[in-house]
Amino acid sequence: MKTKIFFATDIHGSERCFIKFVNAGKVYKADVLILGGDITGKALVPIIKTANNTFHTIFLGEEYTLNSQKELETLEKKIRAIGYYPYVTTKEEYEDLRNNPEKFSHVFEEVACESVKRWVKIAEEKLKPLGIKCFISPGNDDIYAIDEILKNSDYIICPEGEVVYLDEKHEMISCGNSNITPWKCPRDISEEEIYSKIEKMVNKVDNIKNCVFNIHVPPYGTNIDLAPELDKNLRPILQPGGGVRLVPVGSKAVRKTIEEYQPLLGLHGHIHESKGFSKIGSTLCVNPGSEYTEGILRGFLALITEKGIKDFIFTSG
Amino acid sequence: MGEKVEVHVRKASGLVRNISAWDALVYNILVMAPTAVYVYGVWALALFPGVNLPLTALIAIPVCTVIGLFYAIYSVSMPRSGGDYVWVSRVLHPALGFMITFFLFIVVLAVAGSYIPWFVEWGIAPLLQYLGYESVAATISTPVPMFVIGLVYFLICAVIISRGSKTTAYVLWIFFALTLIGFLTYAGTLLSLGAKKFAENFSSLSGMSYEGVIEAAAAQGYPQTFLISATMMGIIFTILNFLGFNMSVYIAGEVKEVKKSQFIAIIGAIVIFGIITWAVYQVTYFGMGAKFIAAISYLAAIGDPTYKLNHDPFFHFLFQYAVRNPVIYGIVVFGWSMMTLAAILTYIFTGVRLVFAWSFDRVLPVIFSKVDRRYNSPYVALILVVILTIIFEALWLFTPVLNYFVYIVTGWFIATSITAISGIILPFKRKDIFEISPSIVRAKIGNIPVISILGAITLVISVWLAYAGAMPVISGPVDPIAIAFSFGVFVVGLVTYFVSSWYHKAKGIPLELSFKELPPE
């Protein structure tokens, strides 16, 4: 039995990347699609509706005045493509958002949820007829509100915290949490909590040797968890030669569980610039990286059998 | 409305790259081997009698700038390490992308191997000779000692590169400073002394007569004025000296703020290299005399019996007659030597990045993309590249095999032509990439994308240079083995790709999927 899985991660609200992810099933002839965490965007682009029914905004340093609904929709699409959220508002509400962080957070959450709802609908429409399994997980950057939206789908599977079957022989456990980051993201938790969460799932797995660990944060001390070391102001620390000092920032708990249980495959993300693979014992751990701002979907395509991983490539679509 | 609308950003991590625009600029300049014109100039004067060298440099700058703009814009559209391997793979076919960069890979490693004799025979040995250590100079100029020197230096390069891209960039800055000091010393000295003093010294110290050299060349029919036809041919030759100005596209994945950095690195490198080239030619004309330098180059090339120097008339060798000061002469020759070492380091660095990119895409075995965790350096790829460079060095020193590599320029520009074609059609074939690229990539003149226009100009220039590179005046009489040798590299590249592709397809995942376009709708 052969199962072709496609894994992508950290698309951070890029609708272009999400649609590519959904289409990857057909193009790569994948049996299973897995979207790792950090699916929501990072920025809101206010588009101010003026009294004479035109729209004004600044996007990527360019000023836009839009005179029709069609122009507005075109720009909204562009904004969503790179992972920002367009938000049509009034001048008054815009001023209010600027001065009221709580209200901004609330609006941001609403917009992010709307976006995830739309994505779920797109995935259902495109993948149901093809019969391609699709798992979408949250990551540490994602607000908890999106879990319910994902779990409410009658086709998409949100595997967070569960043991799910990719095929008859391969199980998968999923954890979107991360160890504590300098940004204190919504799902940052302690190493002990990560270990406990993974162990709970592992205890329910029938065949750990054929299990896939879909764990957002990569294992500590590998080639796929290197990120710039930051000072207290979150600025990169430079080496004497002027280079950015890279340090491992992955999870020690994740590494420990992989060392202990030796699953078939570790699917990770979180550190966009640390794409690659690393072996911990017999376990292949991968991080396909992310270039969502360029609209490029980086991914990992693997053919797995009962005997292990038959072949794999990294993709850039 | 004119009112500022701020994008609201929430806290999250982001990408960081390690090489600055200025690091990339120095890297590009050193790939071109800036003061190699001390040698190239002599060859040009011999090959194209009547050539006006400074003028060729001035004309080469805008020509190369057009190609440079094309590469910079293309790199901004897809800022990933691997350069045109990635672009051509995405727009045309991965096999073509691999083929052209495989050719580049072989070229840079072959040139890296060839630069050790440059370093020894035309750098360190003349300096030792000048200082009175003639036997030492003669000993190290034989193949075995040169091989050992190369071996040691390649291992030093491996250590530097293994410490990461920023450390490599740091070392390149030191090399650049030493090269620049050597060049400025050369230029400053010649400008301060003038040709009269040089003529006196040359006539009294070389065993030849300054005026006699000019007269002998004239007697052999060497033109006494600049010729337009020779200068036109010389322009082609000078443009070839600029090869490598776009190398930062192969490390784009490591360059910070790539959208502006590539323009600084590529265009800046062309301008600075062009100015250095022009200045070397101009001060050499001023300090040694235009007629003299042309005449002695020609006499040496044709083996005229009146030529009695025990060395080639390279500019930095003749410089010893301008000033009888071992320190000043030493600075100039040492600077030149450091330039050769710097160039070797850039070539090995580029080769490592290419192997890593291919391996990451599984064209080469996955082992070559293993990365050292401490310095984030692809150490297995580095070992492979160093071994290959050592083999190329051995081929240069102990066999005549690489003499068959004379169509390298033609091959290089065939590769550039393929990249140019992919750039021309990018906006039409890969609308998904084009439309979300930064505005500078999407710029149009009328309805035609600028990248297509620049690609078309690059294609025309490349075809012209590919043709010129195959002309007998540059590559010598047509030799079928040489043609087969150079173009065989393309074939080996294609075969390598398809063997790898077949292997992965048989296992279940076709290699082509690495770059397969995913519909964004």
Uncertain runs of chain B are 10-16
Low-confidence stretches of chain A: none
Binned, the helix content of chain B reads over 70%
Q: What is the terminal separation of chain A in angstroms? A: 27 Å
Order of helices and strands of chain B: EHHHHHHHHHHHHHHHHHHEEHHH
Radius of gyration of chain B: 24 Å
N-to-C SSE series of chain A?
EHEEEEHEHHEHEEHEEEHEEEEE
Task: Count the DSSP helices of chain B.
Answer: 21
What would you call the shape of chain A? globular
Give the integer mean of the pLDDT values of chain B.
Answer: 90
Placed side by side, the strands forming the largest sheet of chain B appear as: 2-3
Q: Major beta sheet of chain A, specifics?
A: 6 strands, mixed
Strand order of the largest sheet of chain A: 8-9-10-13-15-14
Overall radius of gyration of chain A: 20 Å
Strand fraction of chain B: under 5%
Number of strands of chain B: 3
Average residue-wise pLDDT of chain A? 91
Strand content of chain A: 25-35%
What summary fits the major beta sheet of chain B? Answer: 2 strands, antiparallel
